[in-house]
Request: fold
Amino acid sequence: MTPPPHSVVILGATSAIARAIATRYAKQGHALIIAARDADEAGYIAADLRIRHAVEATALAWDAEDFDSHAAFVEACVNALGDNLGGVVLCSGYMDDQEHPQSDPQSARRTFDVNLTGPVSTLNLFANHFEERGAGFIAAISSVAGDRGRQSNYIYGAAKAGLSAYLEGLRNRLYHAAVHVVTIKPGFVDTKMTWGEVPFAASPGDAARAILNAIEKKKNVVYVPWFWRYIMLIIRHIPEWQFKRMRM
Amino acid sequence: MTEPVNTQILSGWGRFPRQECHVYRPEKRLSVGRILGDTSQPDYIARGLGRSYGDPALNEGGGVISFQRLDRILEFDEETGIVCCEAGVTFPDLLETFLPRGFFIPVMPGTKFITIGGAIANDVHGKNHHTDGSFGHALISFEMLLASGEIAACSREENADLFWATVGGIGLTGIVLTARFRLQRVESAYIVVDYQKTKDLDGVLSAINEDDEKYQYSVAWIDCLARGKKLGRAVLMRGNHASANSLPSSHADPFAMKDKFKPTVPFDLPRVLINPLSMGAFNKLFYALSSGKEGKLVDCDSYFFPLDAIQDWNRGYGKRGFVQYQVTVPLTERQGLVELLESVSNSGRASFLAVLKKFGPGNDGLLSHPFEGYTLTMDFAVNDTLPEFLRGLDAITLNHGGRLYLAKDAVMTPETFNAMYPRRGEFLAIKNRVDPENRLSSSLARRVGLAPSRPNS
Reply:
């Protein structure tokens, strides 16, 4: 008999991409921990996965900004799933209108805590656990916004750039423990963040397919949809003297 | 934090009218309350998959709250078949999840691409209305966000008046967040169908009245271009769910359906193709090719949604779109059907689809459409003379005590509406109580006088 598929923890599980990722895992029979700040929403999503896909799905409260709770949270995940805990997918993100974090220190701090420091605090604990076990994966949604700071969202971009650099280092560290780390950089995906902002966007389902594929194939850095790799390649190569004059 | 909004040109399935609306698409349940409480829009209407034909899910210049992302199934009881889910859950979601477990949707309209919210708001009916009633019959309770921001639990026992104002109330009493309803148990994904051809209207009506109760599902397709002695000739398609042991051995899994090729209409058909000649040919062909076969095993998709097999079939009526005209007249008003059919066949305005069905008794929904009588549904391509033609049909309908179905309507006047829906006053009294400022409104509501027109427009 084949062993049951490993379980996966989804952090920041209420976003549209996170829900699509959870759905794909559930369709493959993986048990899930649906972790989000909004415990009610996490509960709705977990119930939906249980009923539609007949998998175990448990809702847990996880707040990126509540640093003191992270150790207990990770311990709860490890206790619940034990060696069956196969990996973690971090999907939390927070993007305020650029004007707010520019002038409001609370908004700036929140942008960094939800996108960078909270995830670092939590992923460190999972990383230690996986490293000790010599198995597991960590996938995290960063952003193309972290590839180059632009006037329209550079505070969010700075946090995501920090997350990307963190994941690079973590990948390097955990490689030696056979634990794989995937950096996911979505371009425009049809979510709350892009609703009404962009004329075209990939569906969350398509994004989730690409993300699961990247995790399975142990890719390092993946752009979603794939062509954003080339868009960002061009954007990164615009000389700074030129870039600073542009409006984007 | 403000909820993101997207300004879009929307239409119903008939693609007429098309209007600019400010569309919100919440992904969390609490966001709905934030949106409804945001006074930057004059008013709001909820929208599901946009399959109502005219303007009930449009709100020109106002807010539209799309439920596409609020589609979580929350509870299911395998013993009773009772489901609790969010209003954005679709019928395909339910079929995919529950048909393999032996449960079927209690009421299937002519398309499956609808949401639970839409099913309640339009109190949809299907081919089993004469046996099972409309969706309101299977509905047990729902939780609804009111304009005040309160959430009201509604059922036949609790807030019963609000319950019956909301069943068929086209979204104007509040925003249904979650609903609880009963699925029906079935043994297979197949329907055993008897086909029967009738020579004329009397033929089809007497067949319906003779033995409709032998079938859970019954519908007649009418050749609406046939005239004179052939007026109202039809193909009756009636069936029951196939039991598991009646299936041939080739159907090892009674709930498995073959994946079928789905043709699409990839562009708007040129209007020249929608003419009496082509439609006449289509109607004649359908009648001629139909056999009187009995006991044919048909998968439920093909039986319930023949048109869903052609994706985007609404483009077949050309760029200007079409109006679906569904009218119900009392059982005693056979003459009304004759006059309507004569009027259509004499006009040469053909319809791909004309269906006739006998409804069972209606329910207590104040604006619910079905009542005991015959319902006739036809499609007409939009052109400059269509509104005048439809006024003529409206007059025949009114004259025979009939009424139009709001889910299909795009052109009815307030006077016609008032005459057709006698419980309108009771409905408005409840709406005024729960939504005195008309925070819930729609293009249809303003068109037929269920909500006042806006001060500055």
Remarks:
- Chain B touches chain A at residues 1, 4-7, 23, 25, 27-30, 69, 72-76, 86, 93, 96-97 (CB under 8 Å).
